[in-house]
Fold Ribonuclease P protein component.
Amino acid sequence: MLPSSSRMRRGEEFSTAVRKGGRAGRPTLVAHFGMREESGEPPLVGFVVSRAVGGAVVRNQVKRRLRHLMRDRLDRLPRGSLLVVRANPPAASARSERLAAELDVALDRLLRRRDPSRGRRDG
């Protein structure tokens, strides 16, 4: 699972990422990316899964799947970053491979916007 030290818990951290950060949407999820004032802190990741996704059991399954996927992608996030992953209703029935692919696309977009030199390829 995602390390406890990397989990977002405070409401103002969620607000900072959602309101002041960038956003990249996919059919199954939307990722919001922001930065904290203290850039030396480890990255934090939070998850939002509303009732529109499904009942409590389904919502918890989606959160667990997203936490598991983020564990392997945590090292891609710069220090001091805040990432909120919001699940859309199609996430409930999506296969893990699709969730992983869409999470990768969203992260790539957000990180490329933050550092445009990463997205350039010559040739």
